[in-house]
Write a structure and sequence with these properties.
Ig-like_fold; hydrolase; six-stranded mixed beta sheet; 799 residues; binds 2-acetamido-2-deoxy-beta-D-glucopyranose; TIM Barrel; alpha/beta; glycosidase; 19 helices; EC 3.2.1.21; globular; Immunoglobulin-like; carbohydrate metabolism; Rossmann fold; 27 strands
Amino acid sequence: MVLLSNVIAFFIRNHLLTVVEGRASSQSHSINNNPPAISYSTGTGGWEHALVKANAFIARLNLTEKVSMVTGDNGPCIGNIAPIERLGFSGICMSDGPTAFNRADLVSIFPAGLTAAASWDRDLIYQRALALGSEFRAKGSHVGLGPVGGPLGRHPLGGRNWEGFSADPYLTGVAMASSVRGFHDAGVQSCSKHFIGNEQETQRSNTVFADGTNIEAVSSNIDDRTLHELYLWPFADAVKAGTTSIMCSYNRVNQTYACENSELLNGILKKELGFQGYVVSDWFATHSGVKSANAGLDMTMPGTIDVESLSAGTGLSYFGANLTTAVNNGSVPMTRLDDMVRRIMMPYYFLGQDKNFPTTDPSAMHVLAAQYGASLGVPEIPARDVRKDHAKIIRKLGAAGTVLLKNLNSTLPLKSPKNIGVFGNDAPDPTDGLTIISDGSFESETYGYDIGTLDVGGGSGTGRHSSLISPLSAIKSKAQEIGARVQYITSNSRLASNDFRSIFPTPDVCIVFLKTFASEGRDRTSFENDWNSTAVVNNVARKCPNTIVVTHSGGVNTMPWAKNPNVKAILAAHYPGQESGNSIVDILWGDVNPSGKLPYTISEHESDYDIPVTNLSSVTAVDEWQADFTEGLMIDYRHFDSKNITPLYEFGYGLSYTTFSLSSFSVSKLVKNPPAIPDASKAILPGGNPDLYSPLLTASTKVSNTGSLAGSTVVQLYISLPQDSVPAGTPLRVLRGFEKVALKPGESKDVKFTLTRRDVSYWDVIAQTWRIPRGEIKVSVGFSSRDLKGEGSVTVLSK
Ligand SMILES: *[C@@H]1O[C@H](CO)[C@@H](O)[C@H](O)[C@H]1NC(C)=O
Ligand SMILES: *[C@@H]1O[C@H](CO)[C@@H](O)[C@H](O)[C@H]1NC(C)=O
Ligand SMILES: *[C@@H]1O[C@H](CO)[C@@H](O)[C@H](O)[C@H]1NC(C)=O
Ligand SMILES: *[C@@H]1O[C@H](CO)[C@@H](O)[C@H](O)[C@H]1NC(C)=O
Ligand SMILES: *[C@@H]1O[C@H](CO)[C@@H](O)[C@H](O)[C@H]1NC(C)=O
Ligand SMILES: *[C@@H]1O[C@H](CO)[C@@H](O)[C@H](O)[C@H]1NC(C)=O
Ligand SMILES: *[C@@H]1O[C@H](CO)[C@@H](O)[C@H](O)[C@H]1NC(C)=O
């Protein structure tokens, strides 16, 4: 045990410490002197039975045990709630993250959230979460720390955007709900994160200097309407889908740390959205005891070391013994502590985790030790293999999340090239091995590696590969099958210096693989792909008139080479996960017809896009890091539409090897003269006032495959609220429906959309409710945010 604690301490110091450097903040920044009251759980929305069990459990706990239920402790997982042997409670294990079961062996690396969103395929997104969730369960982890609904993608260069889904809240909301259901159906708790406004990594936490000066974390200053219509929207969907926990984020919101922000936690999350589960702090994101507990934080992590002392096992915490004192002296009501435990235990009973839950994989500490170059001094224990046949869904989703951006003269699918050129440092197997090795904290780790394909980003959301199929190895296998040869150069510096002496004869087709590393802990600094990408593409294209570019990236890139006439085709393959090479070969040779659509906008110029990350080079005041979200709702395509800027490739765009058409669009009302606002007397359910989700409109269209190949497309529905009866700052149009449809050549299908009250309302900051504007609402359908084929209008409420 001593050795295990040493490893944990080592791990914490080396991996998490500089993420925080945090300690108590003596200052209080709350601008609200009248915070919302504590919001208690009721078990409403399906957890009534679990509530009865949770209450019975609480009745048997003494005060020390109650406190231990809400305070992280030592253990084999990244987050641990200690067992209570007296009651046969075996504890709770929480593990990273949204893309893979991190810091473990014999697990799968799934496509990133961004890739999943680019598929626009509800079912595949669900299947991804179901498979990932089953790996958590089989490893003995009760809580998978995902899905990610924030960052949403305010900053195109945000370091963690790839862990989440899309810069559009509707698409992200659908993906959150599908992922929550997938996790729960696998018997594992979801932890929807990061709540909220964690849009940048730079100064996401406070920093303490040697002299003790404490520079506070960045404050995301978000107005009420923007919060509701953008950043909160996906979390509302997650809560409606029953998400069992929510992780509060590192940053401050309106000057108050997210994990001690009563407006956010008691007021918006628990009261307005009716959230029944528990709020857990991001690791080291707790900055107070009494204040946080009363503000709505239900569990602190990692707990035993979440104050200044940074050695594991010391038991120091803002909760722990401090919380016991606080309950005894009356500053935290016992009813509040009971509710914290109730919220933690309801999901546990709801998902049946009290029965037949697998034990924690005993290899956990051995893998951790290996990752940090430590040794346990005892023979290694091999890991439990939990991968099953998940490679299949990974391969499929990797291809489905690949977006075909350009395809001149039907260059793709490849016909039968006999001489294939593969170029770029993203093509081959990584020379450093199968795991991104961190040199310390996320911030200080080497920013990406040179030679080797990139299928997943860095930080807590990454994973250790047990298998990784690189593009070069998959293309070589394919070439062998079809009797072709493969030539390659995988050194970008050689390519950037235009040295092609090793290539003869010039290949029939040259495929360039580019990558963009993105990681928790820091934001990206370049729009272009990494490693001299532009010089690499231009040189290959000069050499080879038939050039195809494939990007593996954690977010938005500019593509200065996109219009190069020798660049015949472009594929944005995002982070596809461990089957990367197989997924791209499926697309290149046409075994899979591309159907991915951009879940963000690619701009022509960097300057068209940027909402810069707040980055202060010299800070003198402790409170200087302020991020004012003054653009309001105008992020991503909403910004391009409002400023009338033509992007290179717009939100929702993506080509296919076949063609599609839309016809017969119609939109109609389901309810005559509905009230303008939801009925305030309705009991709140998880997700908020249930009226918000009642259907008000229906729309339909017919989609046809007009080409000669089978394929899928995504029919997208956008609405435009009447600009003269909504407040200023309302986007020109917003996504409010999509459907992925598979069609054989010549086949047609009807597509139906249902729009709810929330879909056609805006957040009225004065009335503090969603309101349907008076006048004509335009509804359009199409194949992207700018390729609209059918348009109609409907007046829900006349003027
Ligand atoms: C609560 O029960 C635990 C056994 O689980 C015991 O060790 C502890 O002393 C008890 N605490 C109180 C305050 O009774
Ligand atoms: C943050 O401040 C803005 C501006 O005063 C206000 O509109 C919004 O409601 C506040 N949000 C929270 C969660 O305090
Ligand atoms: C209680 O919290 C304070 C910080 O407010 C910390 O210094 C102290 O170590 C904590 N005590 C325990 C027993 O965890
Ligand atoms: C109660 O205990 C907590 C935790 O030690 C402490 O922060 C707080 O100041 C105490 N309050 C009173 C009224 O004694
Ligand atoms: C591509 O197709 C266009 C139109 O069919 C033709 O004019 C052009 O020469 C073709 N380019 C190449 C490189 O084949
Ligand atoms: C922030 O500024 C520092 C120092 O000027 C720089 O090194 C860093 O790359 C910047 N970060 C971002 C995300 O721009
Ligand atoms: C880019 O290429 C130049 C020389 O062509 C080289 O000095 C530099 O190290 C390269 N940078 C990267 C990131 O590969």
